[in-house]
Structures are given as C-alpha cells and as structure tokens.
Amino acid sequence: MVDERGVTVSLPQPPQRIVTLLPALTESVCALGACSRLVGVDNYSNSPASVRALPQLGGGLEPNVEAIVALRPDAVLLAKSSRVTQRLEALGLKVLVLEPKSHADVQRVLDKLDQVLGTHEAPRVWRVIDASVSAAAQSVPARAKGKRVYFEINSTPYAAGESSFIGETLTRLGMKNIVPAALGPFPKLNPEYVVRANPDLIMVSVRSAQGLEQRPGWGGIRAVREGRICRFDAAQSDVLVRPGPRMDEAARLMAQCLTDKGQ
Q1: For residues 111 and 126, what is the distance between their CA atoms, to the nearest angstrom?
Q2: Domain map of the chain by residue range?
Q3: What does the DSSP 8-state code read for residue 12?
Q4: Reduced to 3 states, what is the DSSP secondary structure of residue 54?
Q5: Superfamily for 140-261?
Q6: At a CB cut-off of 8 Å and minimum separation 6, what does 18 contact?
Q7: How far is CA 198 from each of CA 13, 37, 156, 170, rounded to the nearest angstrom?
Q8: Which residues, in sequence order, are bridge partners of residue 232?
Q9: 78 has which bridge partners?
C-alpha cells in the first residue's frame, strides 16, 4: 500500500496486532470491524468505549516509542505530523502514515485501511456515513438554511474554515461559513475578524465558550446578542473535530444546533 508520504509499505499478511496514534484512525479501524486487533492507542483515542481499556501510548506527535515496540505490533498507524515515524521504522516496525483532512480523505483512508486489514467493509461504511450526512441536511428547516456560521475550534481563536472537513459538512447542511476557503482549513483569526463578520450563529465547545460574551466587541455580534450559540460538551466536541467514521454523528449534532438556534 502507498501511504500519505508516497511510501510503499508491504505487509506479508493483514496485520493482527495494530497500534493507532490518531483518534480518527482508531475509530476507522473499529468501524471496519477490526477493533479486536488493536493492542495500543494514543492518549486521546476514546471511542468506541472498548479502546479505553487498551494501553495508552502518549500523544500522537511524540508517543512512547519504547512502549510501542514492547507491544510487538504488525503495523503502526499514525499521522503525518507525528515525529516518531523514522524512529519506529529504524526499529523494524511497519509504519503507515494516514491522515484524513477532508470528506474525500476519510473515504480514501477507509479504502486504504480496508485493503490493509482485508476487511472489505469500507464501501458499506462510507455509504452509511454519506447517506447519514445527507439525511442530516434534509432535517435542517428551510428557515435555517443560508445562515452565516462561525465554528470555533479553540479560543485562540482557531476556526474551522470552509475548506476543512467541518466546513464541508456545514456546506452540505446549507450553511455559509464566515471563514472562506482562501484562509485555509483551520486558520488562526484576529478576534476582530469575527466581530466584523458578524455571524448569525456560533458553534463552540463548552470549554472555549467560557467568557465568549466578554471578549472585546463580541457583545455586538448578532449571534451573541440573540443567544444563537451552540455549546458542545467534551464528548460532542470529540465527535465534531475528528475526520472519521463519526462524521455522520457530527452532522446530526450540527443539524440539531441549526434546528434549535437557526431561526
């Protein structure tokens, strides 16, 4: 298989002992029916619930290499941004770099994992995701369509732009993202930008939302003034910010927000 680096990785047989170092990859392996093959995960992989009992190997960027090697994995799945790829390969481990960033990427990564795992489930899994996102879009009332939305990733503020997988879902739901594709998928914004853009609706995690109304000038934003803010708890935020098989659940959460607040 050719991974995200353009590197061809050959495996003698479908791996039976797998380490994943990105929550979206953990969830994808499980969605394809291979959860039982996982022997270790990164500290942030928490879905499905069964993976919480597995050894946690640190953050995805700089996980515990010694702990990974000790698990004797047949394959290690990690993101491009991980800093241990070469070290793991130098120790003789098979490493697959896979990092979904868009809807098309999620489908492609599922296909590649299907090939590696020999599971033959990716087409069905993707059909369910895609159909569920479409159903979520159909559930959004006409009055909410076309609303201008600001989706905050954290209070820096970093935002989900139009070209991100979150932005793609918002577009499918009929929303207008205040952060255009030209700014990149997850740009760091000047808070004044949001004030000037004056969104109709704000989507934000409970944690990032603390003190949001007190930010300079934000009291005048239409969404703040009219109370059109959807605050997602930690579990919901995990669903929303992971480009993987729970994108359909993310779409339903956004659609519910639009139904409740997009009048």
Answers
A1: 9
A2: 18-120, 140-261
A3: S
A4: coil
A5: Nitrogenase molybdenum iron protein domain (3.40.50.1980)
A6: 29, 34, 37, 38, 39, 73, 74, 75, 76, 77
A7: 54, 48, 18, 17
A8: 205
A9: 97
**Per-residue confidence in pLDDT tens, the chain, 263 aa:** 899 999 999 999 999 999 999 999 999 999 999 999 999 999 999 999 999 999 999 998 999 999 999 999 999 999 999 999 999 999 999 999 999 999 999 999 999 999 999 999 999 999 999 999 999 999 999 999 999 999 999 999 999 999 999 999 999 999 999 999 999 999 999 999 999 999 999 999 999 999 999 999 999 999 999 999 999 999 999 999 999 999 999 999 999 999 998 76
The C-alpha R_g of the chain, in whole angstroms, comes to 20
At the second CATH level, the architecture of 18-120 is 3-Layer(aba) Sandwich (3.40)
The DSSP letter of residue 59 is -
Q: Name 151's Cβ contacts closer than 8 Å, sequence gap at least 6.
A: 159, 160, 166, 167, 170, 177, 179, 202, 203, 204
